[in-house]
Structure formats: C-alpha cells, structure tokens
Amino acid sequence: MIRTVLGDIEKSELGATMCHEHFIIDLDRVRHDGVSKIETVEEVVPEIKMMMELGVKSAIEVSTIDLSRDVLKLKEIALQTGLNIICSTGFYLSEYHPDWMDGASVEEIADIYVKELMEGIDDTGIKAGIIAEIASSPNSFVKNEKKILEAAGMAAKKVGCAVSTHTSRYTAMETIDTLLACGMDPDKIIIGHQDLINDSQYHLSLLERGVNIAFDTCGKVSYMADEVRARNAVRIIEAGYGDHLMVSDDVSRRSYFVAHGGVGYLAAYKTVLPLMKEYGATDEDIYKITTLTPARVLDNEWK
User: In CATH, what number is assigned to the domain containing residue 258?
Assistant: First the structure.
C-alpha cells in the first residue's frame, strides 16, 4: 500500500509520478529572498492542474517538518485536483532545524518519524508516506544532519518505508553507507538531486549500490541544461539501471510558477522526458521511470 494524504492506495493506482516536489513550503525564513515560499492552496492548484494535463497522477511532496509543511493544505490540494499526494516526515538542512534538535537523540528523532508515518501528523489523522527530504550540506554533514539521517534509517527499517534525500556529490556515498548500516533495503533509498552532477560514471557508482537516484531538478537550466540531464538519464538506461531512476522538478519558489513567467511543474514531463526519447529512450523506459519505479519504492506493508 502507498500512503497518501487522502488515505492508502494500491500501487496500481499511483500512475505517473513526480518524485520530489513542494506544494506548500517556506524557505524564505532563511533565504530572505521574498520568493522562496509557497503558502496558499489557491496559488498552487492552477500550477498543479497544468502538470496533471501532461499525465501526472501523483507526487511525493518532500517538504519537511521544519519547512512549514502543512498537511491540511496538502489534503485540500489533493481534494481540489485529484492528485495523489504522498507527504513526508523529516528534517532539512541544519540552518532550518528547531532549537531542540541539539539535545535530541537519534532514537527520539526516529520516534517522531515513526509516529507521523504510523499514527498521523499532529491531530490531523493524515499520515506521512515517506521520510524526506533528509538533507546534508553541500560539502559535508553539518551539525545535526548526520543525526537526522541516522534517525531516518532507523525509522525506515522499523516500518519498511522509503527515504528520499537532498544530497550532493560529496555526501552521497556516506548517505548510502549510513542508511544501509541501519539495515535499510537499498531499493527503498532515493538519492536526490543527482541530475546536478554531469558525471555518468559517478551516477553508476551510486546505482551499483542498489539505490535509486532522482533527476529531480528538471527545468532548472541555470544549474544544468535539460539536454545534459536527458543524455545522462539515457546513459543510465543504457547501462541497465533505468528501473532505478526517477524524475521531478523540485519547485521550491513561487517565482518558478508559470503564473510568474517560469516553467512551473512542467519541465520533467514536457521537456526532459521527450528529450530522453529523442536520445534513445523507449516508451517502456519512460513508463518504468515515471510509474513502475515510484510505485515499487513507495509500496509498503507498513509493519
């Protein structure tokens, strides 16, 4: 079963999925740029409807506890759009962590994750369906970031769920090692933001560990051209790992919205996937990436 904000669904109901999105989020309290915030159901629903017109049926919403996650708003978005939304439990980068984190043990943090996965978030009755996006800083783990990762591995092992990460080249292997040391199934691990790294041999070195990687910043061409993303994705398919790859856009600022002149939640399905087909990916490859792999990774018996 896959746990959504409207209740559990069968994996056959998931359909084409965005693996790493934000619908309600506040990064502005650290960034102070005036646009790193999505606050209202009304502003995001039209953007999601445009995404769904491309065939998207589901999304993993990876906003963490410390990024102003609001599951009641996510529920309302799901009701208004028909999108299957899998919400998250977890913590983000160290500068966003609550003050009490310094004194918390790994076990105490893991207990928070387990409660939100199995009992519900606060008094909403809504349960998280994944632990995400567990973050590490660009060059190394900072302050309590290793602690929240260890707690994620502990909780995921206990309940059987997936963990999705915010990970750089410099923390990826350590992230995998840490989660595997907790006893996690590598196929329940999603290493995020790997399309920002233009190195196919590096990608394969991660995939050889049995984990999944996310090309989840599609459309952010100031970081990496979508043509490069697509070619690197096809190289992964050609190497035999097409069933361990997922895609998304990671929209975290309202300035990315179509309403504000951006590409919204459209880049993965409107640009990158078509480019992949142009470069040699088949319809079967695309179906694995968009539908079969997310369903396999998210599906859980909920121990």
Answer: 3.20.20.140
Q: Is the pLDDT of residue 34 over 90?
A: no
- The C-alpha atoms of residue 176 and residue 186 are separated, in whole angstroms, by 8
Q: How far, in Å, CA of 6 to CA of 17, rounded? A: 16
The tokens 């952010």 sit on which residue? Answer: 220
Main-chain phi, psi angles of 60, to 5 degrees: -90, 115
- The CA distance from 283 to 243, in Å, is 13
Summarize pLDDT for 46-75 with one digit per residue, the tens: 999 999 999 999 999 999 999 999 999 999
Tens digit of each residue's pLDDT (9 = 90 or more) over 257-280: 999 999 999 999 999 999 999 999
- Sequence letter at residue 44: V
Query: Beta-carbon neighbour count of residue 157 at 10 Å?
Result: 18
Domain count, the chain: 1
